[in-house]
Design goal:
Distance between the termini: 33 Å
Shape: globular
Strand order of the largest sheet: 2-1-17-16-14-3-12-13-15
Strand content: 25-35%
Largest sheet: 9 strands, mixed
CATH superfamily of the largest domain: QueA-like
Structural class: alpha/beta
Helix content: 10-25%
CATH class of the largest domain: Alpha Beta
Number of strands: 17
Number of domains: 2
Number of helices: 6
CATH architecture of the largest domain: 3-Layer(aba) Sandwich
Length: about 350
């Protein structure tokens, strides 16, 4: 049941956690469920992702994140011989990364042994975080090749089984760099993309490399690298001038587009680091809708959803999702949030 606490809080039953990919449950990617909600009248429809074209109009524009997921989890060894889980989060330069030593005590100067062999030398906490560290990696080959050989996908305690990296990729993934899958786009298949094209729905991409998502309570999202290509900026601006909807595929796309937009909503091409946090107080300037998964209680992403919609609508949607037994997490179901038409 939802509570009155802020940020949005509710009890997520463990049986609503998707513990394995839909393919392991006998479904295609595009057969996960889809909850469609309309902000202007609180209308909710229950469907499946393969029905997505039915809820979009000719001229609407979907914008997706083409960042490809790295197998960013490694087994490391402390100097005392204890094995720990190590997640690579964000590349800052060729050999300097933000890393997360999982559930262990570490200090500046510690050297963690990696397979290969390789090492990770802890330099300093990242942005005063209690869990993230800036580290220098000494690897036998470039990092992407190294992870393909020695890494595995990041998975959390709710996940059962061990799944190959292909299960953590979108079909349109192109640029390796994300520690975790931009999961809102996982359900897309080439047949769905063809159906959208036939209907006249546009499809464009940005790149935003996601870091590890297991933020501590009260921890703000940290900087991430993004790129908005000229053709995507042009497509977004054209859709807006024609009063067509711009629908972001995932919160990463909202962050990238809003980072690239002027106050009046015009998007400019560019690349760099963004520390933008989209809140209800700031609101959104570009997007009219959002395709996203269902987020955990008190998650920072819920504030972004509230910026696209409003608090009462979000509470209404999450009550419905819980009542109708939608599934959470990266292998779960999806929510298409459509704001009022401009």
């Amino acid at each position: 049941m939802l509570t009155a606490a802020r940020p949005l809080d509710f009890i997520l039953p463990t049986e609503l956690e998707a513990r394995e990919p839909p393919e392991a449950r006998g479904l295609r990617r595009d057969q996960v469920r889809l909850l469609v909600s309309h902000v202007d009248d609180d209308r909710i429809l229950h469907a499946h992702f393969q029905d997505l074209p039915d809820f979009l109009r000719p001229g609407d524009l979907l914008v997706a994140n083409d960042s490809a997921t790295l197998p960013a989890a490694l087994t490391a060894r402390r100097s005392d011989g204890v094995e720990i889980a190590l997640h690579l989060s964000t590349r800052l330069s060729d050999d300097i990364w933000v890393i997360e030593p999982r559930k262990t005590e570490v200090a500046a100067g510690d050297v963690l042994a990696l397979p290969g062999p390789g090492t990770a030398t802890l330099l300093e906490p990242y942005l005063a975080s209690r869990r993230l560290w800036v580290a220098r990696l000494d690897l036998p080959v470039p990092a992407v090749a190294y992870l393909r050989r020695w890494g595995r996908p990041i998975a959390y305690s709710y996940s059962t089984g061990s799944w190959p990296i292909e299960m953590y990729q979108t079909v349109y993934a192109r640029e390796p760099g994300s520690a975790e899958m931009p999961s809102a786009g996982r359900a897309f298949t080439w047949p769905i993309l063809r159906c959208l094209k036939v209907k006249g729905v546009g499809f464009a991409t940005i790149t935003l490399h996601t870091g590890v998502s297991s933020l501590e309570e009260g921890e703000a999202p940290y900087p991430e690298f993004y790129a908005v290509p000229p053709e995507t900026a042009d497509a977004v601006n054209l859709a807006r001038t024609r009063s067509r909807r711009v629908v972001a595929v995932g919160t990463t796309v909202v962050r990238a587009l809003e980072s690239a937009a002027y106050e009046h909503g015009c998007v400019v091409a560019g690349r760099g680091w963004t520390n933008l946090v989209v809140t209800p107080e700031r609101g959104v300037r570009v997007v009219d809708g959002l395709l996203t998964g269902f987020h955990e209680p008190r998650a920072s992403h819920l504030a972004m959803l509230e910026a696209v919609a409003n608090r009462s609508h979000l509470e209404f949607v999450y009550r419905a999702a819980l009542a109708e037994r939608y599934l959470w997490h990266e292998f779960g179901d999806l929510h298409l949030l459509l704001a009022a038409t401009r």
